[in-house]
Design goal:
8 strands, 9 helices, two-stranded parallel sheet, 313 residues, mainly alpha, two-stranded antiparallel sheet
């Protein structure tokens, strides 16, 4: 395991890699693969990938496909961060992630005014050659930590329905009901999509590893040979175990922050989180074993949090 601080340089490395791939600066091949991945989500948006059958397994595979593409350009230590919207959910718009991924300009859809994905800064545009648009809505807030913990311990059908619903709240409050991409079939074109879904995957991971204690057979355990829509490389059996994802059996591990100020925040709000073990990720040889890192909501803007990651190249 490597313990480090998620510094501004590390955040910059991720967003600059996404920009290099999206704008073609990393070459035509990576850009074409990137665009195909984004298009897959748009094509299958109204299909089984958002119902109880495939939502969690499909997005687990989708994250890995995108992460592997980005690692080919940015190096094997690059991983998709996750946006933990359970921290300060009542003031979600103050999260540091919006300094990087772009904030809101007004009460109706407009191009993001700041961050690495503002058109004026980096030339970032969507597949339709449009600017990145947001329309924030303040009438709802993301789920709290306690709400998520209750969901994780629910019977599977309720867990799946409730967490899928809570995943939709950030889509709505960031994208709005207008032309904001984040609440449409083109949501994957918004760079915030992958940190958001990495957090959803983290909740699914917690249920499997910490609540069910690594009992993988739940809803889709009886459908091991079912192919994931638009992802012919993957069957259900390839995404049941988070430590063996895909035909190559890639290991993914989430480890909690050990930063003192972050732990102080959790104690003050009555939360308690413990780190997982990295033992499951050993013995993978030279195949990349990514861990999805995180952007933590800072108590103050300049604060940074520790993370762990496990990988081999």
């Amino acid at each position: 395991a490597v313990v480090s601080t998620q510094s501004s340089g590390e955040k910059r490395g991720y967003v600059e890699t996404v920009l290099a791939v999206a704008t073609g600066r990393a070459g035509r091949g990576p850009q074409d693969r990137f665009r195909r991945l984004l298009k897959i989500h748009e094509i299958y948006w109204r299909s089984a990938i958002h119902d109880r059958t495939q939502f969690f397994p499909w997005h687990r595979a989708y994250l890995l496909e995108m992460e592997n593409l980005l690692r080919q350009v940015g190096g094997c230590s690059l991983t998709i961060p996750y946006w933990d919207w359970t921290i300060n959910p009542d003031r979600w718009w103050t999260h540091d992630i919006f300094n990087w991924f772009g904030a809101n300009r007004g009460s109706y859809p407009q191009c993001v005014p700041n961050g690495y994905f503002a058109t004026s800064f980096a030339g970032f545009t969507t597949l339709q050659n449009q600017c990145l648009v947001r329309q924030w809505s303040y009438q709802f807030s993301p789920a709290t930590y306690h709400r998520i913990q209750n969901i994780l311990r629910s019977p599977f059908d309720r867990f799946e329905d409730d967490l899928r619903f809570e995943h939709g709240v950030p889509h709505y409050i960031v994208g709005g009901e207008g032309d904001g991409l984040f609440f449409t079939d083109r949501a994957a074109e918004d760079p915030l999509f992958f940190p958001h879904h990495s957090n959803v995957e983290y909740q699914f991971y917690q249920r499997q590893v910490r609540v069910l204690r690594k009992k993988w057979r739940e809803f889709w355990g009886r459908r091991k040979t079912l192919r994931l829509e638009g992802m012919p490389r993957y069957r259900m059996k390839h995404v049941i175990n988070p430590f063996k994802i895909g035909p190559e059996e890639v290991c993914v591990e989430y480890v909690e922050s050990k930063d003192g100020r972050y732990q102080e925040y959790l104690a003050r709000t009555g939360n308690s989180r413990s780190a997982g073990s990295l033992e499951e990720c050993s013995g993978l040889g030279n195949f990349p074993a990514p861990i999805f890192e995180k952007f933590r909501a800072p108590l103050q803007e300049e604060e940074r949090f520790l993370h762990e990651r496990s990988y081999s190249c």
